[in-house]
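Protein record

Derive tokens from sequence
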Amino acid sequence: MSTDRKLRVATVITRFNGGGGRVALNGLLALPDGAYERALITGGVGMDSEPSTSGDVVLYGDEAVARAAAGDLTPDAHRAGMEVAQVGRLVPQISPRDDLAALRTLTRVLAEGRYDVVHTHSSKAGVIGRLAAARAGIPRIVHTWHGFPFNEFQSAARRTAYIRLERIAAKHTDAFLGVGSDTVTTALRLGLTTPERVRLTYPAVDVDAFATAPGSRAQARRALDLPLGVKVVGAVGRLQFQKGPEIFAKAMARLPDDVFGLWVGGGPMAGGLARLTARLGIADRMRWLGHRDDVAAVLPAFDLMAMPSRWEGLPCVLVEAIGAGIPLVATAVPSNQDLVLAGETGLLCAPEDPAGLAAAVTAMLDDPAAADRMAERARARVGPWFSPAHLGTVLDETYRGTSRRPRPRS
């Protein structure tokens, strides 16, 4: 592929939100000026009608922005001058009818766009997007693994099916980026890629944007109307099974009455978590804040961040918390240990263990000097390779690289 001409690149992602969406957007924004024409193609999560009745609808430009879901980053991409489109049938849930329709529609959209590179993110868009790109004759196909759709909490049959789908899509992939070291090593162990086609990358976060100014802690706590003198344990993430919010609540119930819990993020478990909080008797000190666009303003209210995920790639929020100087407790799952080194840059605990999470939180809160030392070491560990600028360089090198998919183009 030519190294001196402007390339047309399309990023395909199902949900353009959360850490994965932010990494994708930061990468697009960091591509070298004048070297790329950038397009974003998202799923139809924000459309008014149900996916099965939305037809093969594709919305472009202002219409796609108007139909974006709450928290979606499509408006940011549109303001930055990117082409934006929303494919109505590309939805997160498994739906054979919608998935086949999405494959057909996305193939047409990519062929019409005459892109040089298609870069897919997320599990659903990763499989359908790569197959569509291959059918559309796209010269170079790139995929980012932010984590994998298969994990130890699934049945053997489902895990096997997901791995098989990844292997099929991998045959149509010229290059991979793996967020977190365990993501890369898992891919290699399972034979999903060959060594020359995969590169380790990290969440692209503007760490300096999360640095706290003097007085920001008090200001954040006043804005959240928190009682004076309480200790605050916080978490950020979507309210879904993967993130373990009910484990967080059960751990909070084991902590003293002067410890408050805050969770930033919305999702399908919201109603059940409100009921669980009431049953645990902690409704007066556990707050579910829902989706917020001002996470950087909320983080200073935390004395500690506790992430109870059952599985992860490497979440952006850990890097954001480190930038804000907040001590970390996280579950010992891939790839949290890239950042949270046990007893050095934070504490690790077992997943699905509220008692263990509560014990780790207690240890940190009872020894604030040790917690601060760990936070300082964590900040030193976040080097320039976590920056959007570095990701832009990685993407430029990957898009113009020479690695090739194993299946001949047809």
About this structure: Confidence is low (pLDDT under 50) at residues 47-53. The first helix runs from residue 18 to 30. The chain is about 40% helix and 15% strand. The domain at 207-383 is CATH 3.40.50.2000 (Rossmann fold).
